[in-house]
Write a structure and sequence with these properties.
The complex is a heterotetramer, with 2 copies of chain A (about 500 residues) and 2 copies of chain B (about 250 residues).
Chain A lengths: L7 H22 L2 E3 H10 L12 H11 L7 H12 L3 H9 L11 H32 L6 E6 L4 H14 L3 E4 L27 H18 L4 E5 L5 H10 L4 E3 L4 H5 L4 H17 L3 E3 L5 H4 L6 H17 L7 E2 L1 E3 L9 H15 L6 E3 L9 H17 L4 E3 L12 H17 L3 H4 E3 L4 H19 L13 E3 L9 H4 L3 H4 L1
Parallel strand pairs in A: 2-3, 2-10, 3-4, 4-5, 5-6, 6-7, 8-9, 9-10
Antiparallel strand pairs in A: 1-12
Chain B lengths: L4 E2 L10 E8 L5 H13 L2 E13 L2 E10 L3 E2 L15 H11 L4 E7 L7 H7 L16 E5 L6 H11 L3 E5 L7 H15 L7 E5 L5 H6 L4 E3 L5 H17 L1
Parallel strand pairs in B: 6-7, 6-8, 8-9, 9-10
Antiparallel strand pairs in B: 1-5, 2-4, 3-4
Helix pairs in contact in B: 2-7
Classes of the chains: A alpha/beta (about 500), B alpha/beta (about 250).
The structure holds cobalamin (2 copies) and pyridoxal-5'-phosphate (PLP) (2 copies).
């Protein structure tokens, strides 16, 4: 079997450093909340819809509380108190606030807590039902063997997306990712309703989630395979998207603890706080989170920066544990991004992929195809994708993003996806048992490379101290006041995929 | 029939997206790249983009393009010539031959002239058949004579006469410089000259053969990729019955 | 100039061979296959052959075709718009700036609006550069300010005013639904409105940007793939000198 | 290192059977000559050109001798005798015969022998010079590392072929094969002069050889790499083509001991006799012969018939030794023809390729790309070719025929070749040392498969008895009369690549 000799003590030391780093961040961040965490809380409590200017009601309520200096005690209590007072639903309260018919004040009495708790229980109940529904559907139609084929749709129009997603599922996709419109990550609200006008992707809205979920359930039943749905749980509304995804039974979320900081210039505190909350929701909903280490390699060199990928995976792993996820829910990311012109690049790629496999034996590794070194030469690109497919099957990856030969040109056409699936199926089939039939030379170049990356990772993690402030969204970070209350963590952190 | 206009589809209905690649017999430079783009424009592609351009050495350059086809086609106006008959299975064919002909149907097949690609004709004729479809040799109501590769048209015709063949099956695989058209015309001219054309059911097959093309060449039917023995046999007995009735 | 008519080349001069692939939004059958062939005919391809046709499910089908282009292009008539300047190396650029401007040239760059692809603009501006070509930050006669990703046009213009910029560099990578055209137009409108358009040297780059396109959008120059810092810098100082002289 | 445990005793037994089979055939065939062997002899003695009907003079002379019942003593003596008598060159003699101005008679006196010997010596001298020239050119411009990239040109027009061959060499081809026009193999004469009208290939003529050789020498000097030229030394004129190739410095020849019998319905005796003579010439000229086992797999299933490939290679090896070739001159053929839909097909392919590598460690293995299972889907085809490229580098093949994504469609366009080279270069580079970095699991599926094929081969060879007559060209087989003489074998069998 393809297997590398690695120094387990080194792995353990690196993991300890990561645990220390994540723990410290958690302790620091637990002292604050954010506007989007509170909006997510309201969404989970049943607040939805937009006002006449298309501003979502969760935003209206949270802004209202923020203006009145009340957000630091949590939106849940204020709304629950008003519900008790008026005998309304949370939605009715929100509508009244938006219409200027109601002004919220503090409200921290036990009655408000009880109401908030009751709503949270109801909400968790719904999410648990979705989880059970997922299990039932998988029970009925079965699911694909791994690596699961992961395909994106990105037309900008949810109805075109659905067409393409159905076709993709029929052709063999196991997971469909709806790519988000360029720029949504920096919107400080979640658009509403079914949308048909995105750029480079389709807006993540709850209605879009619902429409796509229904379509995939339908085609899944037809093809006899549960088709997983995924979206982006990142940007300034990360926790709200987690809430929407949990409600609409998404199965996976792109949800990284550092992507926003590094790639979207989002404030660190904001990102970390939002992370914990959104991961908690994902964890409870039985959603697999996919982390974004692959992105590092689109700007850095894949050989030079290989250890940064492993280091980040270790930190993401620890953050995930803190939010209650089990290893199978950790879609740790990495990517086939070595320059095709590099002599023996394929060997280094094998080393990296196998290293990650062995360091995280139970994780649902997410392996990304070549992107950076793809060019307009679609023929060569198709071969790059084939070698990527090969590494994936030889090193037993779990979530396999299909490479598109047109990566350097446009978001995928339907035929690009079709050909990508053929490519992967051919390689996976013709090499079905190759992983258990070849061995890496002991002490050879491949093994040496893996050991070197592990060593660099260990020292990198040992050196990480503390981090700075700055970036977008800091204004949405609110120090919690004494008496801050949120009814979800105590429910969500104990249930979910871990126990059921 | 209702009109049914269609365009190529990239990721949105009627976006017309097509992919194109070709070589130009000039070295790569800005002018040749623009030339590539204009060729796509001339083909009726809107917003053509040269997404890849590479010099190939020795005065050649290679291009990959994407563009949006202006052209659309009304599918409702398309009539595809098809031999009209019901495809029976082996038993059905045998039964029909027995019933209508009262004797074995004689089929002579060959890969004619310079063409030596026998796998296709073997697929139709040999006992074993192809992809799980048994060949004509396995039909007890068919006498199947497979003459193999590179058979001169004269030889084939002579054998057909000798065997009193009902059907001639020809395979043509090599199409470079349209050599298959020459070969097929030659065979039908010889049959004509021998006064045999009317009497014989003349069928051609091969990877680039369509029924339409076969008809143009004066053949009775043409079979392309994924044809099997039962297709040809069903056609042949059908045609025999039709002629008999006429 | 002598005429220079060319056609695509497969294996013989002027055979016109091109490869084509596309999807049709209908299931595969004989009619759709013929539809694919007719589309190629409509594009001006002789003897088009559908060499591959496959059903994709959900009412789509995929085609690969080869055909012979009727169209030909006279390369001698093609004029490619090119920014006219001599490309100097880093030292040459520095010397020219020092000599002609007598001060540092101020360059503000950004990836504007929703576009977050900074690798291109970084390749031009960052110290390290790209493919062994150092970036503008390493030019001691250039003050290079790289504002990074997703910068609003207003913000970019404000900064350019603040820094008394000579040159604005914009990168646009995402082109879906032609969003880059909207973004670029927006920026140049704002500059116009601020009365700054005349004063500033306005340059855009990206994988789908050509000089021609840039000119159409009212930019001073456009740079596509494989551009390096010295190209832009050489253009900028040249343009500066030209304007000064005018 | 990729290596299989094989039973050496089994290999030895199989080789013994093959030696026995080849030896018996040789003994039987040595009693006859053929029209084309005699024409080849005349060509080597300097007879060339055609008559007014485009019939080559070697044919005219041999037909003349045949008519007069004199061919069974060999054409060399008759012509040499006439030369002596008339004081003419061989060419002048042939022209006179063709013009009806001269009638040849027996002539077996010592003077005729001496003249024939002198001409043969001169001819061998020329061929030896060409061999030395090849060595010198390789010395000057160097040569490519293996696997050598082998590309075909097949326009039908030698001048287009030259254009494409030059371009191919610039792009990275190490070997250029000019494919022969459909049908030439069944012509019982060799066409003459530069030709521009072939179907599916270009006629093999001496002038075409010369033109292409010159073009490749030129481009080779430019790219700093000796570019090898190859053609088809098979069909009814096999020995004559060998003679032409030796004279014009071809470097390789498709030259199989059984291809004509199996695939062109050529008479067995004719083929074997022609084989020995043409191999002897190739051997002496330092030409690598490529055998055609790959062809078996275009009509049979590549898994079922794997042992027939190995069996044929063993017979070809023994025939080659009998004709004086050294192992490096044996381009034993095999092919990547397993159905891409077959689960684990890639493993069986690895097993076959590695088996052949280990059974013939010194041979210049010729590995052929997928053809039969290529379809009009050029994108999938390009991936099939990539996996073929991979097996080639992992199992260290020597002569690597490039797979074309348009294999099922047309003879290669210039861009097909260009993309094929890119494909191979990418795979070879990115996997440069993979062959020495992976091991096949001992006792695993791959090894078991190789052992099974070897075992089947052994029993197949043990069972081969004797073979039949029939097929094209039997009329050209002539029993040698006592006094038959040919001046070449004694010279050619002792020199050539073996010693120089
Ligand atoms: C196998 C093969 C060979 C074998 C043939 C062995 C044999 N005994 O047949 C060998 C190695 C000998 C060979 C040689 C050559 N080949 Co070849 N060969 C192929 C190959 C790889 C596969 C063909 C095949 O067997 N297909 C499988 C069969 C089952 O499919 P099929 O023929 O389409 O048959 C089906 C239908 O078309 C139909 N059908 C076919 N015939 C008939 C007849 C009737 C009556 C009916 C009803 C139906 C029917 O039913 C069949 C089953 O569904 C193709 C490439 C490819 N992948 O297609 C090249 C190919 C056909 N060969 C080609 C060439 C050029 C040659 C050579 C001329 C090259 C050369 N100069 O050396 C030689 C010479 C051969 C000659 N004189 O004809 C070219 C043809 C190019 C063109 N379009 O003109 C091809 C496409 C390869 C290429 N890209 O260059 N070849
Ligand atoms: C890396 C990358 C990313 C990274 C970007 C990281 C970063 N900090 O830049 C990440 C992962 C964040 C990313 C995200 C997205 N991406 Co992106 N990405 C790429 C990728 C793989 C490589 C781009 C790259 O870095 N090229 C290398 C640089 C050096 O090349 P370049 O930009 O062309 O620059 C050169 C020249 O063009 C020129 N140049 C460029 N700018 C300028 C400016 C000036 C002034 C001058 C003189 C010259 C110049 O000089 C440079 C050097 O020679 C491409 C695919 C590909 N292989 O091209 C997709 C691609 C560009 N991305 C795409 C998309 C759609 C997205 C997303 C919108 C997807 C989504 N919905 O999530 C997001 C959102 C990003 C956003 N808001 O813009 C599409 C764009 C499709 C299209 N044509 O519209 C592509 C083509 C992928 C695809 N097929 O879908 N992406
Ligand atoms: C973790 C993660 N989040 C988000 C995104 C998408 O980017 P955006 O923030 O533009 O939606 C990616 C893209 O790869 C990602 O990996
Ligand atoms: C050994 C050998 N000879 C000849 C040929 C070519 O065939 P033909 O006899 O048509 O020239 C091949 C084709 O692959 C071959 O392998």
């Amino acid at each position: 079997m393809a297997h590398l000799q690695l120094d387990q003590a080194r792995i353990d030391r690196a993991r300890d450093s990561a645990r220390r780093i994540a723990g410290r961040v958690f302790d620091d961040m637990d002292r604050s909340t954010t506007t989007t965490v509170e909006r997510a809380t309201l969404r989970l409590m049943g607040v939805d819809g937009v006002d006449e200017n298309q501003v979502p009601l969760p935003n209206r309520v949270v802004d209202h509380l923020l203006e009145r200096g009340l957000l630091n005690r949590g939106a849940a209590l204020a709304v629950a108190a008003a519900m008790n007072e008026q005998g309304w639903t949370a939605q009715q309260v929100a509508e009244a606030v938006a219409a200027g018919r109601l002004v919220l004040d503090g409200g921290d009495d036990t009655a408000a807590r009880n109401t908030a708790d009751a709503l949270a229980a109801q909400s968790c109940e719904h999410i648990a039902t979705q989880r059970a529904q997922r299990a039932a559907l998988i029970g009925n139609s079965g699911e694909a063997p791994q690596p699961w084929l992961y395909l994106i749709v990105a037309t900008g129009n949810i109805y075109e997306d659905i067409k393409q997603a159905r076709a993709a599922a029929e052709q063999g996709a196991d997971i469909v990712a709806v790519i988000r419109s360029t720029g949504q990550s920096l919107l400080d609200y979640v658009p509403y309703g079914a949308t048909t006008e995105g750029f480079g992707g389709t807006y993540a809205t709850q209605e879009n989630f619902r429409l796509m979920r229904a379509a995939l359930d339908e085609v899944g039943a037809k093809v006899g395979r549960y088709i997983r749905l995924t979206n982006y749980c990142s940007g300034l509304c990360m926790p709200e998207i987690a809430a929407m995804g949990a409600i609409e039974r998404l199965d996976m979320m792109l949800n990284d603890s550092m992507y926003g900081i590094i790639f979207r210039d989002i404030n660190m505190q904001r990102t970390f706080i939002d992370q914990f909350f959104s991961r908690m929701i994902n964890g409870y909903a039985g959603i697999i989170i996919n982390t974004g280490e692959d992105n590092y390699l689109t700007t850095a060199d894949a050989v030079d920066a290989a250890h940064t990928v492993l280091a980040s995976q270790m930190i993401n792993e620890q953050f995930a544990y803190l939010s209650g996820l089990v290893p199978e829910q950790m879609g740790l990311g990495h990517a086939f991004e070595i320059n095709p012109e590099l002599e023996n690049g394929f060997l280094w790629e094998l080393a990296h992929a196998q290293l990650v496999r062995q360091v995280f034996p139970e994780a649902s590794l997410k392996y990304m195809p070549p992107t950076k070194h793809m060019t307009g030469n679609i023929f060569k690109g198709h071969v790059q994708d084939a070698l990527f497919n090969m590494v994936s099957t030889v090193t037993k990856q779990n979530i396999h993003l299909l490479g598109m030969m047109t990566e350097a040109i446009h978001t995928p056409f339907i035929q690009d996806r079709f050909l990508a699936i053929q490519n992967a199926r051919y390689v996976f089939g013709t090499m079905r048992d190759l992983h258990s039939e070849i061995e890496f030379k002991s002490g050879g170049l491949i093994e040496q490379r893996a050991q070197a990356v592990l060593a660099e990772t260990e020292s990198m993690l040992a050196e990480i101290k503390r981090t700075a402030t700055g970036g977008k969204g800091l204004d949405g970070v609110i120090a919690k006041a004494p008496g801050y209350y949120n009814p979800f963590p105590k429910r969500m952190l104990q249930g979910g995929a871990r126990h059921g | 029939m209702a009109e049914q206009w269609i365009k190529p589809y990239g990721d949105t209905q009627d976006d017309g997206r097509v992919q194109l690649s070709f070589t130009l017999p000039v070295p790569l430079d800005e002018v040749s790249k623009e030339g590539a783009r204009r060729l796509a424009l001339a083909m009726g592609l809107d917003e053509p983009a040269v997404v890849h351009a590479e010099d190939m050495g020795q005065g050649f350059s290679f291009y990959v393009l994407y563009g949006q086809s202006k052209h659309r086609i009304d599918l409702s106006t398309i009539q595809v010539a098809k031999p009209e008959f019901e495809v029976l299975d082996k038993d059905g064919v045998n039964a029909l031959i027995a019933e209508k002909m009262g004797r074995k149907m004689v089929v002579v097949g060959a890969c004619i002239e310079t063409d030596a690609h026998t796998v296709g004709i073997d697929a139709i004729m040999n006992m074993k058949g192809y992809n799980g479809h048994k060949g004509l040799e396995s039909y007890h109501e068919v006498r199947a004579i497979n003459m193999g590769a590179q058979v001169d048209s004269e030889e084939l015709v002579a054998r057909a006469i000798e065997e009193q063949a009902d059907v001639i099956l020809v395979s043509q695989v090599v199409t470079q410089k349209n050599i298959h058209l020459d070969n097929l015309t030659r065979l039908s001219d010889i049959l004509e000259a021998e006064g045999m054309r009317e009497r014989i059911i003349l069928v051609v097959g091969g990877p680039r053969i369509s029924h339409e093309l076969a008809k143009e060449l004066g053949y009775d039917a043409g079979f392309g990729p994924k044809s099997y023995a039962e297709d040809v046999a069903s056609f042949a007995i059908n045609e025999w019955i039709k002629r008999k009735a006429a």
